[in-house]
Design goal:
Blueprint (H helix, E strand, L loop, with lengths): L6 H14 L20 H5 L5 H4 L14 H5 L7 E2 L8 E2 L2 H17 L2 H12 L2 H4 L8 H8 L41 H10 L7 H7 L15 E5 L5 E3 L26 H16 L4 H18 L4 H20 L4 H19 L3 H5 L12 H11 L32 H11 L19 H4 L10 E5 L5 H4 E4 L9 E5 L2 E4 L9 E3 L3 E4 L10 E3 L3 E4 L3 E3 L3 E3 L3 E5 L2 E5 L2 E4 L4 E5 L5 E5 L2 E3 L4 E3 L4 E7 L3 E8 L1
Parallel strand pairs: 5-7, 6-8, 7-9, 8-10, 9-11, 10-12, 11-14, 12-15, 13-16, 14-17, 15-18, 16-19, 17-20, 18-21
Antiparallel strand pairs: 1-2, 3-4, 19-23, 22-23
Helix pairs in contact: 6-12, 9-11, 9-14, 11-12, 11-13, 12-16
Length: 622
C-alpha cells in the first residue's frame, strides 16, 4: 500500500471491503474487488481427484485449486484469507485467527533467546534433509557416516553476515560426501534416494505460494495489514509497520520481490517434513522422534520471523499429503522396500539386533528427543499453535492413501487397520486450516504411532515375532475407548499401557499381551486361551476372567481385581516372578477351578491358597 495513503482513507476502504465480503468492519488487508466468493473445501472436493491420484499436477504452471492438487488440498486457507490481485491486496476473512497468528509472531520477536536465534539460523541455512537427520538420535551419527551426509553450516554468526550464506560441502569432507540426505552411491544410497524422491519434481510449495499470496509476517501489522512506511533499512529492503522482526543473521536471506515471496505455505516446513517422513519410513524405530523433530525444526521458521504459524501448519499439511502420495505411488514400491531393507541391515550390523532398544537408549544430554513426554507436549502444541477453533462435530474421514505413512511403523496391521488407527487418533474438527479437503491436516502421526484411539468394532491383531522389529514387540500407549474388543494372535508381543475403556472384551489367542496400566484391559471380559498374559502392575478387570490355557505371568507383588468370576481350567498356568515376601492376589466375585501349574523363581516356593473369592500366592524361601 502506498505510504501516501492516509489512515482515514485506509479505514474507509477497509470498512467498504469488509462490508462487501459480508464481514463486520474490522481489520482487513486492503483488497482487490473480488468477483467471486472464495472457493470452499466442499467445492474443490469435486474438482480434483484424491490427492494421491493427482499429486503430479503440483507444478508451477498450475496455480489454481481446479488445476493443482496441492493448491486444492490447502483450501482450508480460503476460510481465513481471500487472495487479492496483488501480493498486498488480500482480504482477511477470519480476523480472530489471523490476529492470533500475528500476536504469536510479535510475542516470539520479543522473547526469543540467543540460543533459539542461533538454531533458527542454522535450520534456515542447512540443507533441510540434513537438518532432519537429527531426529534419528543415537542413530544420527551412524547415518551421516554411512550416507556420507555433510553440511557446511554448523554455527551461527553473531550478527548479520556481509553476504548471503548457502550450504556447501566443507573442505576436508570425505570423498563422495554430499549435502542433504547424503550420497546416492553410499552405503545408505537407497535411503538417500528415497528422501530425494519424496522431495522430487512434484513436491514444491511454490505453486501454492503463488496461488495464495499470503504475505510474510514481517511485512504485516498486528491487524494483518501491509503498511509500507516508505523507508528502507540498511540492506535496502522496504520497512513495514510490523511488530515482527527477522533475526539479524537472516536479514540478507529475505526475498527481495514480495510478489514472489509469499509466506503460505512454508517451503522449509514442507521440506523438513518430507525428509523426516522419508527417514521415518526407512527407520521406523525413530518414527515419533523424527515426526517431533520435523515439528521442532518447522517452529524455527516462526522463531526466525520468516514464517507465521499459519504458514508452518500449511507446510505440514502439504508435506503429509505429498509423503503419502509419493510413498504410495506404485512407481516407488521397489525403492521404498529397498530403502527399508538397506537401513535395517546397515544399522543392525552397527548396533546389533535390538535396533529399537538402541534407537531409544540415549538420554536428553545426547538425544534432543529422548523425552517422550516432552515430545508429546511439543507436538500437541504445534499441531494447532492454539489458534482459535470453532466447535464442529464433523466426522473424520481418512484421506485416501494415508495409511502408507504407518506402513513400516505398524507392519503387523492391515491397510484398513492402519486407516482406522489414523481415524481414531486424528484431531477433532474445527481447527483453522486443518479441515481442508481430505482432512490431511487432522492427522496426528505422533499419536497414531501409539496404536488405536478407540475400537469401533472388534479388532484382531496378529504379530509375527520372526519378522523382528515392531512385528515382534510393540506398545500401544493411547487411551483406547469404543464398543469393540481386542483379540491378540500371533507369536509377537503387544503391550497396552493406556487408560483404556473399550467395552468389547479382550482375548489372547497366542503370543504375549502385557498389561502395563491398571485399566489396560478395558471394561469387558478377559479370556486367555493360550500365550502369556503378563501383568506388570495391579490391574482391574471389569468383566469376567477366564483362563482355559496359556500362562498368567505376574511381575512382583500385585493385585488383580476381577469384578466378575475367575474361571480357571486345568491347562491354565501361573508364573510369579519376584522376591521372597511378595504376595499376588487374584480376587473376583467367585473363583472356579485352579491353576494347573504354578511356576516361581529358583530358590523360592509358592504357597497357594484358594478361597471362594480369591487366589493368594505367597513367595517364600525354600
Amino acid at each position: 500500500m502506498p505510504a501516501s495513503l492516509t489512515m482515514n482513507r485506509r479505514t474507509l476502504l477497509r470498512a467498504t471491503l469488509a462490508s462487501s465480503a459480508g464481514l463486520a468492519a474490522g481489520p482487513t488487508l486492503l483488497s482487490r474487488t473480488a468477483s467471486a466468493a472464495p472457493l470452499t473445501a466442499a467445492a474443490t472436493q469435486s474438482v480434483m481427484q484424491a490427492f494421491v491420484d493427482s499429486y503430479t499436477t503440483n507444478v508451477t504452471a498450475n496455480t489454481t485449486a481446479e488445476t493443482n492438487a496441492a493448491v486444492n488440498v490447502l483450501t482450508g486457507m480460503t476460510r481465513l484469507w481471500r487472495t487479492g490481485d496483488a501480493w498486498n491486496t488480500g482480504t482477511v476473512l477470519s480476523p480472530s485467527v489471523l490476529r492470533a497468528n500475528m500476536r504469536h509472531m510479535a510475542q516470539i520477536s520479543r522473547t526469543r533467546t540467543t540460543a533459539q536465534v542461533a538454531r533458527a539460523f542454522i535450520a534456515d541455512r542447512q540443507h533441510q534433509s540434513y537438518a532432519a537427520i537429527a531426529g534419528m538420535g543415537p542413530l544420527a551419527a551412524l547415518y551421516r557416516e554411512g550416507a556420507l551426509a555433510v553440511t557446511g553450516i554448523t554455527e551461527a554468526p553473531t550478527g548479520t553476515p556481509a553476504t548471503k550464506l548457502d550450504d556447501a560441502v566443507p573442505a576436508g569432507a570425505a570423498t563422495g560426501s554430499a549435502l542433504g540426505a547424503g550420497s546416492a552411491t553410499s552405503e545408505l544410497g537407497q535411503v538417500v534416494t528415497l528422501v530425494n524422491t519424496l522431495r522430487g519434481n512434484y513436491s514444491s510449495g511454490n505453486p501454492s505460494k503463488a496461488a495464495y499470496q499470503y504475505p510474510r509476517p514481517w511485512r504485516m501489522t498486528a491487524d494483518s495489514e501491509v503498511v509500507d512506511t516508505g523507508t528502507t533499512d540498511e540492506f535496502g529492503y522496504p520497512v513495514y509497520d510490523s511488530a515482527v522482526t527477522v533475526i539479524p543473521q537472516l536479514l540478507r536471506q529475505r526475498g527481495a520481490t514480495p510478489a514472489e515471496d509469499g509466506g503460505f505455505p512454508s517451503g522449509h516446513t514442507n521440506a523438513f517434513y518430507l525428509a523426516s517422513l522419508a527417514y521415518a519410513y526407512a527407520v521406523p524405530e525413530r518414527f515419533q522422534e523424527l515426526f517431533t523433530s520435523a515439528m521442532d525444526l518447522a517452529d524455527t521458521r516462526v522463531v526466525s520471523g520468516m514464517h507465521s504459524p499459519v504458514d508452518v501448519i500449511g507446510g505440514r499439511i502439504l508435506a503429509t499429503a505429498l509423503a503419502a502420495a509419493v510413498l504410495g505411488d506404485p512407481a516407488n514400491a521397489s525403492l521404498k522396500s529397498a530403502a527399508l531393507k538397506q537401513a535395517n541391515a546397515y544399522f543392525s550390523a552397527k548396533v546389533g539386533e535390538d535396533l529399537i532398544g538402541y534407537a531409544h537408549g540415549a538420554d536428553t544430554t545426547t538425544d534432543a528427543y529422548a523425552d517422550r513426554a516432552a515430545n508429546r507436549r511439543l507436538v500437541e502444541q504445534k499441531l494447532t499453535y492454539g489458534l482459535p477453533a470453532k466447535k464442529s462435530s464433523a466426522a473424520m474421514v481418512v484421506p485416501k492413501g494415508a495409511e502408507v505413512l504407518l506402513e513400516t511403523r505398524q507392519p503387523y496391521l492391515s491397510a484398513a487397520q492402519r486407516r482406522e488407527v489414523l481415524r481414531t487418533t486424528a484431531l477433532e474438527a474445527g481447527h483453522p486450516l486443518l479441515d481442508g479437503p481430505e482432512n490431511w491436516g487432522r492427522l496426528n502421526l505422533f499419536a497414531a504411532a501409539d496404536g488405536y484411539g478407540s475400537f469401533a468394532r472388534d479388532v484382531e491383531v496378529t504379530m509375527d515375532a520372526s519378522l523382528g522389529g515392531f512385528s515382534a514387540n510393540d506398545v500401544w500407549r493411547n487411551d483406547i475407548g469404543g464398543r469393540g474388543g481386542l483379540t491378540k494372535s500371533g507369536t509377537g508381543a503387544l503391550t497396552l499401557s493406556g487408560d483404556n475403556s473399550y467395552r468389547g472384551g479382550t482375548e489372547l489367542v497366542a503370543g504375549t499381551l502385557t498389561v502395563a496400566s491398571a485399566t489396560a484391559l478395558g471394561r469387558g471380559d478377559v479370556r486367555v486361551n493360550a500365550g502369556t498374559l503378563a501383568v506388570t502392575r495391579s490391574a482391574r478387570i471389569e468383566g469376567e476372567y477366564r483362563q482355559l490355557g496359556g500362562m498368567l505371568k505376574s511381575s512382583g507383588a500385585l493385585r488383580i481385581t476381577v469384578d466378575g468370576k475367575v474361571v480357571l481350567r486345568g491347562g491354565a498356568g501361573l508364573q510369579v516372578t519376584g522376591a521372597a515376601g511378595d504376595v499376588v492376589v487374584i480376587r473376583g466375585s467367585r473363583v472356579q477351578g485352579t491353576f494347573g501349574t504354578v511356576t516361581v523363581p529358583s530358590g523360592l516356593r509358592a504357597d497357594v491358597d484358594y478361597s471362594r473369592t480369591a487366589v493368594t500366592v505367597r513367595l517364600r524361601r525354600r
